[in-house]
């Protein structure tokens, strides 16, 4: 039995992508897509840096899903996938300065400026409910 590594990873990662796209988050797969959506953007945008790690599965993606049930949410919802869509992720990270690369992570932007950022270390030891509460608080502050 032989399968290419790329095909294996596509098959393994797709359910992790689906966790976010099925709730209405748009995947940005190339640097051009990221630039088109985030450069000079108007309104609020949530950008989730997805990953294959356990804290992405157990805390980050479920926390984002819970937060998006809130009455107040960002105007735009995007995701990039670290380790899979590497160039798109690198481009998105240019918008997250001064924060170092972190995956998973969650950025909230307003009119093209970063206003709230949740790094991996703020995800891995917290519950999905804690992350959702953090996000909904940021939504209330910046998305009105």
TrEMBL record:
<protein>
    <submittedName>
        <fullName>BrxA/BrxB family bacilliredoxin</fullName>
    </submittedName>
</protein>
<comment type="similarity">
    <text>Belongs to the bacilliredoxin family.</text>
</comment>
<dbReference type="InterPro" id="IPR009474">
    <property type="entry name" value="BrxB/BrxA"/>
</dbReference>
<dbReference type="Pfam" id="PF06491">
    <property type="entry name" value="Disulph_isomer"/>
</dbReference>
């Amino acid at each position: 039995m032989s399968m290419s590594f790329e095909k294996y990873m596509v098959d393994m990662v797709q359910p992790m992508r689906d966790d976010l796209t099925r709730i209405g988050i748009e995947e940005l797969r190339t640097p051009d897509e990221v630039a088109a959506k985030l450069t000079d953007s108007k309104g609020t945008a949530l950008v989730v840096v997805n990953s294959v790690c356990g804290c992405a599965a157990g805390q980050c993606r479920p926390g984002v899903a819970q937060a998006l049930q809130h009455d107040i949410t960002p105007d735009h919802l995007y995701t990039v996938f670290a380790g899979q869509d590497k160039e798109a992720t690198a481009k998105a990270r240019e918008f997250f300065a001064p924060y170092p690369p972190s995956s998973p992570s969650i950025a909230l932007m307003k009119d093209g400026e970063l206003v709230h950022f949740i790094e991996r270390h703020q995800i891995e030891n917290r519950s999905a409910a804690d992350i959702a509460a953090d996000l909904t608080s940021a939504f209330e502050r910046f998305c009105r």
